[in-house]
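Friendly challenge for the regulars: who can give me the structure tokens for this chain first? No prize, just bragging rights.
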Amino acid sequence: MKNLRGKLSLLLLAAVYVLVSLRLFPGNWGRTLRETGWHLLTIAPYTVGSTIILAAVLRRLGEGRKVSRLLLFRIFVTVSIVLEFFLGIYDYVS
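First reply, four minutes later:
Bragging rights claimed.
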């Protein structure tokens, strides 16, 4: 049960990430997909870099033990959601 719960929470996090990064253009699905893809490619270096830094810190705190891939993906999605939140505020204000 614990394993299923962890996978469902990870799936929910990924769905929230896709939702917050969606750049919606009503009535134009092609442009919506193109702009969302472009946005994800633009933001990817920041989120991947932050994930690598956090993984290194966790490895250092864990006395050299490797961080699992599931945890790395969870960190990546969480960092991405936080970054999207701040980018959304910036886009809304400017």
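Residues 29-61 form the longest helix (33 residues). The radius of gyration is 16 Å. Your move, everyone else.
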